[in-house]
Write a structure and sequence with these properties.
- The protein has one domain (about 5-95): Ferric-uptake regulator, C-terminal dimerisarion domain (Dna Ligase, domain 1, 2-Layer Sandwich), CATH 3.30.1490.
- Helix content is about 40%, strand content about 20%.
- It has helices spanning about 5-10, 50-60, 80-95, and strands spanning about 15-20, 25-30, 35-40, 45-50, 75.
- A three-stranded mixed β-sheet has the order 4-3-5, with no helix packed on it. A two-stranded antiparallel ribbon has the order 1-2.
- The protein is extended.
- About 5% of the residues are buried.
- Bound molecules: zinc ion (ZN).
- Zinc ion (ZN) binds near residues 77, 78, 80 and 81.
């Protein structure tokens, strides 16, 4: 089966899987609408329960643009990695070389 066929089959599964455009990958979908947050350090993906589609549709409508699909993916650093980075920074400051 060619990759395009696999992607089309995954798309047909609909709400059970969610395409992650940023990673060109699929993840299990918990059914939570809204955006997803992707950690650029550890790769963790979490759902952000926010009704972003409605707001974007409204803004697009005001601009005369008809949206067909909203992709809301936020790339950043998760709380755990931020905490780890902060402790590494603290250790570096406490042990001057
Ligand atoms: Zn992380």
């Amino acid at each position: 089966m060619a990759p395009n066929q696999i992607y089309r089959a995954l798309d047909r599964l609909g709400p059970r899987v969610r395409r992650v455009e940023t990673l060109n990958a699929y993840m299990e979908d918990a059914g939570t609408p809204g955006a997803i947050m992707l950690c650029r350090i550890c790769g963790r993906i979490d759902a952000l329960d926010v009704q972003i589609d409605t707001a974007i549709d409204r803004l697009c409508g005001a601009a005369g643009f008809q949206s067909a699909r909203v992709i809301a993916e936020i790339v950043g650093i998760c709380a755990r990695c931020r905490s780890t980075e902060a402790s590494i920074d603290r250790e570096a400051r406490e042990q001057p070389q």
